[in-house]
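Researcher: I've been going back and forth with a colleague about how Dihydrodipicolinate synthase family protein might be arranged in three dimensions. Neither of us has a model we trust, so I'd like an independent prediction. The organism is Streptomyces tanashiensis, in case that matters for your notes. Sequence below.
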Amino acid sequence: MVHAHVPAHPAPRAHPWHGIMVATALPFREDGSVDHDAYARHVARLIADGCDGVVPNGSLGEYQTLTDGERARVVRTAVEAAGDGARVMPGVSAYGSAEARRWAEQAAEAGAGSVLLLPPNAYRADERSVRAHYAEVAEAGLPVVAYNNPFDTKVDLTPALLSRLYADGSIVAVKEFSGDVRRAYELAELAPGLDLLVGADDVLLELALAGAVGWIAGFPNALPRACATLYRAAVAGDLAVALPLYRSLHPLFRWDSKIEFVQAIKLSMDLAGHTGGATRQPRLPLTPEQEAVVRAATEKVLAEGHA
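Model: Here is an independent structure prediction for Dihydrodipicolinate synthase family protein. You can compare it with whatever you and your colleague have in mind.
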């Protein structure tokens, strides 16, 4: 397997889930198989271009369509390509808690530094089930980042519930995808030690100003350097840099919260000169109308020098 060169990095961070953790898109060959070599180059490039780490096997990585063998190899490829396993946060979501724990154990064996976990989502789980689920996966030994996506899971990890999961010792952070930026302040009151990570690109600035310490990000797949500049300025409160750049990128960032976010981000990657490509079914290509909108927005930010 051929990998891109990964430059040397400073000493490992105490909290490897902080910073820009890119939810990586996964390239496929023309025959539909996973292109692990292209994926390795993608991971190395993201880190070289200023991102702090990667999140393989998330929704953007189309993990639901992967075989067990493909999913496990994606994690190993990411760890090797990143040059430091602590920079890798695999998604370990599964319908059953025991299966999710096995994926967390696989991540630990591969050398990953943390894992990302949805609540139970085969049904609308109650609080007891949610707490038991996270406690089970935490037994694998890696820090667990909760993923709150009430739209897709129909389970809302409210600030009150997150505070209980944190008090249980089951989670260290939350990827917040509800879109309700007001929750940042309630969460800080109820669980001041729980780290808030931006979970949707189109609320990056709002949550960064509200105290987020990380961003599990989509569009850095296509525009890593511009997104890194934006993130650093946002968490530093440098609105003179952050606000105009955020305004420029926001027409693209909105796609991260749409159903077609995988296809949109992969198209932007292609336009930016990186390997995006096709998605696996049931995701279908963008409609001509959707493609035209994403293409125009991407070409505009590239023309403005935001690569």
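Researcher: What would you highlight for our discussion?
Model: I'd start with this: The CA atoms of residues 102 and 111 lie 14 Å apart. After that, consider the following. The first strand starts at residue 19 and ends at 23.
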